[in-house]
AraC family transcriptional regulator (Clostridium fermenticellae), 130 residues
Amino acid sequence: MSSILSKVSYINGLMDGLQIDKDTKEGKVLVGIVDVLKSMAEEIENISESQKSIEEYMDAVGNNLTYLDDDPYYDDYKLYEDEGDNFVQFKCSNCGDDIYVDKDIIDQREDITCPNCHNKMPLDVDPKKL
Ligand SMILES: [Zn+2]
């Protein structure tokens, strides 16, 4: 983590150990360079910290999306979004939940089961009238 910072500290220590005169022109340049290096190292450390937080956040978001993909009701919802024109909306006579039924299914079946309360209802509605 702090490997860049520790390298900069090492250079800083070298400067002290070599007893570079920080009042000479060359010494001032070296001190300036080490200062800039230290600032950059700290900035990089900050950026990599916040990048880690972002990665953790994205992981959490990704896991939530996976959960949504596994949810059968979410799949129904997506299907409804994709083929909205082909669905007929019913209201469950028992729980009042909205039920979307494919027009193809209405043609084939005489009743539907509410996915919410499992109430069976007759499909006595002509979809062409809706
Ligand atoms: Zn119901």
Remarks:
- The first strand starts at residue 87 and ends at 91.
- The pocket of zinc ion is lined by residues 92, 94-95, 97, 114, 116-117, 119 (CB under 6 Å).
